[in-house]
Each structure stands twice: as C-alpha cells, then as structure tokens.
Amino acid sequence: MSKVVLKGLSKSFGDVNVVNNIDLEIKDHEFLSFLGPSGCGKTTTLRMIAGFDMPTTGEIFIGERLVSSVEKKIFVPPEERNVGMVFQNYAVWPHMDVFKNVAYPLKIKKTGAEEMKERVMKVLSMVKLTGMEKRYPHQLSGGQQQRVALARALVMEPDVMLLDEPLSNLDAKLREEMRFEIKDIQRRIGVTIIYVTHDQAEAMAMSDRILLLHNARVQQLGTPKDLYERPENQFVADFIGLINFLKIDVTEREGRMMASFPSSPETPPFEVNPENTGKSSEGGFVFAIRPENVKLVSPDSSSIRGKVTKKVYLGNILDYRVALGKEEIRVEASSGEEFELGQTVGLRFESYVLFK
Ligand code: ATP
After folding, report:
1. Which residues have CB under 8 Å from 100's CB, separation 6+?
2. Where does the record place the ABC transporter domain (predicted)?
3. What ipTM score was computed for the predicted complex, to two decimals?
4. How many angstroms does the Cα of residue 157 sit away from the middle of ligand 1?
5. Ligand 1 site, residue 40, Cβ cutoff 6 A
6. Residues with Cβ < 8 Å from 170, sequence gap 6 or more?
7. Which has the higher per-residue pLDDT, 208 or 335?
8. Which domains does the chain have, with CATH numbers?
9. C-alpha span between 281 and 303 (Å, rounded)
10. Atom 20, ligand 1: which residue's CA is nearest?
11. pLDDT at 350 over 80
C-alpha cells in the first residue's frame, strides 16, 4: 500500500503561515498534483512529505506508517521514508556516466554488483535509455537527462515518487513529450506520484486529481474535469483555463430566477438555472462562463445581443470579443456561422457557474 495521508498539516516560518491545515488522502497508485501560483505552499508541502521540513502541526502517513507527527514526537528521516524525489534542477552528476548516475543510490546502500546491474538496467529500460549507459550527461538531450534523474529516483523502487516541477528546464515540445512519458512510466510500474507544478496545462494533462492551493489554503480538490467544469470559487475558475466574469443581478419572478446585467440595462432579463444560484438565490452574483460556452447566433434568435469588437482567426477556432453593454465577452467558436467586426450578434449562454 502506498497511499499518503496528510492530517491537519500546517507549516509556519516565523509567524508566516505558508501551509494551512491540509487534510488529504492520496490514493495508492494515484497521480495527484499540487497546483497553484508561486508561493502558495506547494514545495513546502512536498518537502514535509519527503521529510526535509518538519511540520508545525499535523501528521503524515506513508502507507500505513506514521512518518511525521508533531503531537506524538515522531519524525522518520527522509532516507527511511522510501520515497523517490526529483527536483526542478534535476542535478545529474556531470562527471558520472548514465549507469553510475543511476546506480549511485544503490551504491550508497552497498547493494551487490550483480543486483545493482540488474536493477539499473531494468529502470533504464523503463525510461527508454537502454544503450546509453556509458554516455555522460553532456552527451544527452535535456529530456534524456531528465529521464536519468527519474531513473535514479525509481531505482530505489520507492512506494511514492515526489516530483517538484521536474519539467521546468525543458523546452515546450520536450515538456509535452515528457508528460506522456512520466504518465506512462507511472501506469506501468504503478507508483503513487505527487507532482508539484504551477502550470495548469501540465497538471490537467497528467493528474488523476489536482489539489489547487492559493494563499496557503486548499481552494479545491478534484479531477481536472471537476476543476474545469465545476470550479468551487472564482479563484479556481480563473486559474484553470479561460473564463469570462460578468456581474449580474438575480431576482425571482413568478418562480423563475431572472438575471440582468447592470452594465447592460438594454439587455432584457434572461432566466438562469436556479441550481446554480444555491440557497441565496436573489441578489448580486458573478456570472462565470468559458469562452467556448458562449454561442454566437443570428440576432433574431436571441434577445441577448452584442456587437463584435474583435475577431482573430486561430486555425481551429475563431476568437471573438463581443461588447455587451459596457462589458466585453470573449467567445471561442469552433464551427457555425461566421460573424464580422461591427456586426450585431445574438448570444446564447450554455453551461456557466454563478458565484456569490
Ligand atoms: P514556487 O512555485 O514559487 O516554488 P511554492 O508554491 O512551491 O512556490 P513554497 O516554496 O512552498 O511555494 O513557499 C511558500 C511560502 O513560504 C513562500 O512565501 C516562501 O517565500 C516561504 N518560504 C519557503 N521556505 C521558506 C523558509 N525556509 N523560510 C522562510 N520562508 C520560506
């Protein structure tokens, strides 16, 4: 079993609280990302799991084993936690060839020569570096060096792998390739991975679940789809993908929830789904809608009308800006009728979320 459990985990440096009361269970064989802007506490949380930082309060379990508890005065040192780590600056040793780089942790553990060779060759094949044992890091591409670092972490057969922005030194194309490779290795060997990134596309592409952090606090925990389609607050909606935020006023009329835009008094009220307004069903809300969920139609087919102010052809989509009263809405259209600059268009809102 290689689940990881965090209970009431907090960390303060002096009187600055950088991780605030995280409760989380990372399942066996799960790929979970810590995502959030710079300084939100991702690395600090990872370092506490690895055993490089002592929590201020709370407990950490790896498998069934309690490895860190302030209250019970338990602290298992990093080398006894059986976790593999790969950091941002994946430091492979320049004076050692690939084999020696990967064998290094086994050498420290005084593993016999035969077993060492067998294990190194096995992980090199996993990361597709067979045949490159004798090369030195300067004879490898960035992506290959990255895989050496991964292999060095994997050779200890850890229950859990902790990866901190491991792709940040690579160019865009390699990053994307490595995403697939890491995900593939994880599937094949079934290791639990906790992955730190500030790149939402990376987290979306790789993760089973994402823990989105901001200001030391958990903003949402869920699958990439949950975060994209059902963001729990405005920060999450804004951080993941593109979204429009528009102020609306909601009032109940004859059992229907009617919304109007204060910035566009000429737009007639339109009905919003009462499920979206929650308990506090009347009053001011923020209407949040992704650009692909706004459909442009002919002005006769919708009472909500705007004017096209920008139009950019992006190959697979047309990226429009449409003025609606004093606000501007971004619209991404992948098919359907084309509209021109200055043209009056009808707007149709498909799935959206309302925030109080
Ligand atoms: P980044 O993406 O920039 O690495 P992060 O989310 O990983 O950010 P952390 O490295 O966990 O953020 O840092 C969280 C906060 O804690 C930051 O404000 C940072 O300055 C602070 N911090 C981290 N380590 C220390 C330390 N040893 N002493 C004091 N403050 C620290």
Report:
1. 93
2. 4-240
3. 0.94
4. 29
5. yes
6. 142, 143, 146, 178
7. 208
8. 4-237 (3.40.50.300), 242-355 (2.40.50.140)
9. 23
10. 39
11. yes
* Per-residue tokens: 61: 């379990």
Residue 339, φ and ψ in degrees, nearest 5: -120, 155
Nearest CA to ligand 1 atom 30: 13
Q: How far apart are CA 229 and CA 288, in angstroms?
A: 11
56-74: pLDDT as tens digits: 999 999 999 999 999 999 9
Please state, as a whole number, how many other Cβ atoms lie within 10 Å of the Cβ of residue 84: 24
Q: Which of 237, 160, 170 is nearest to 202 (CA)?
A: 170
Tokens of 91: 């430091």
Pairing mode of beta strands 83-86, 160-164: parallel
Which ligand 1 atom lies nearest to the CA of residue 14? 29
